[in-house]
Amino acid sequence: MPKSRSASELHRDRAVSVIRDLVTSGVVSPGDRLVERTLSSELALSRVPVREALQVMVAEGFAAERPTGGVVVRQHTLDEVAELLDISHALDAVAVRRLDQAGVAALLETTTAAGRALEAGDHAAAVRANADFHDVLLGAGSSVLREVSTPIRARLRWLMEQHHDPRQMHREHLALIDAVAGGKAERITTVLDQHLATSRAALAARRSES
User: Fold this and answer.
1) pLDDT tens readout for residues 182-203
2) How many whole angstroms separate alpha carbon 76 and alpha carbon 111?
3) What tens digit of pLDDT does each residue of 48-62 get?
4) How many domains does the chain contain in total?
């Protein structure tokens, strides 16, 4: 029987979820301080679970400890972003070759959601649905792949949500599903490589604007 979780663990996890959302949604920007006392007050929690949540943010790569004390939202360098994209590409390449029919069906649900969002002109919903595609892809893989990818999946999702052109992402996701359904190994590789190139170009463009 699973061990019940303590109140302190639940409070910490709630704080982690809220702080992670603040970072990934852009409410707080790279370099902004994550002040334990302020967050504690805003979340109506004691400082202990908030302190633990900030350490989780550091471990996940969303925040960094300052030499002078305190925690700030992490500013990823271009090299770090490029490395994260390479990791995402490698994990996707493993996952896509282990998809079963249920996995393909789950991916189709995300592309359907993205298509509807694009038709409705809902850019933010389309970006989220495209990020869901990669989340579902990794989740549909083997148990080993899920275990390996879990520590960085939140950061990879954040990465996928940085795209300016969800329509292009959507097209490439559809092309990947088509290649998988047709059992076209070379086509799968080509689409994945194109997806990586598109992601690199999109993130480089976003960085140049900031």
Assistant:
1) 888 899 999 999 999 988 887 7
2) 29
3) 999 999 999 999 999
4) 2
Q: DSSP states of 22-36 as a string? A: HHHTTSS-TT-B--H
Q: CA-to-CA distance for 200 and 85, rounded, in angstroms?
A: 7
pLDDT digits (tens, 9 = 90+) for 78-118: 888 889 999 999 999 999 988 889 999 999 999 999 999 99
The whole model's pTM is what?
Answer: 0.80
CA distance linking residue 10 with residue 8, whole number of Å? 5
Residue 69, phi-psi category: left (phi > 0), alpha (psi -120 to 50), beta (remainder) = left
Size of the chain, expressed as the number of residues it contains: 210
> What does the alpha-carbon distance between residue 152 and residue 84 come to, in Å, rounded to a whole number?
9
DSSP-derived secondary structure letter, 140: T
Instruction: Tell whether 38 and 138 lie within a shared domain.
Output: no
CATH code: domain of residue 160? 1.20.120.530
Q: Is 85 helix (H, G, I), strand (E, B) or coil?
A: helix
Q: Select from 103, 127, 102 the least CA-distant residue to 113.
A: 127
Query: In which domain, by residue range, is 55 found?
Result: 7-73
What is the pLDDT at residue 102? 92
